[in-house]
Amino acid sequence: MTSTRAKSSPSPSPGGDFTAYAEEAWPRLLRTARLLTGDADEAADLARAALAQTYARRRRVPRDDADFYVRRTLVRLHGRRRSPRDRRRLTALGRALADLPVRQRVVLVLRHGDGLAESEIAELLGCSQGAVTSYARRGLAALSTRSLPEVRR
Asked: Hey, what domains does the chain have and what are their CATH numbers?
């Protein structure tokens, strides 16, 4: 099976410089985590935890799949976390996303926030591409019923 994983960044491999990778990936991870959590502090904690877990397992991460493994760790950690600490601090979009089931929220963030293809999301989540399509369709339908003044089409 041919991998559809993006291979654009340096790798956190034993011979590689994980610090350089983390510095390069940080803004992207923080943006994704912020969309997932809706809270800047929680997003920073989530991104840090994802990098720390990947660093601890860096010897098992294939050289050219660092982004895939860090992103998958970020998504899995997010799925295990409780709801946002303080919903009052969330933006309208953050509240709307927080109201969605976790899988729908993750699919929408990865698809529209990170620009991943459905096949990449399916591989990352370990589900079928049809399931990703369904999560995206249901999530977008739920969001379309909300008034989101900060989101421009």
From this structure: 11-89 (no CATH), 91-148 (1.10.10.10)
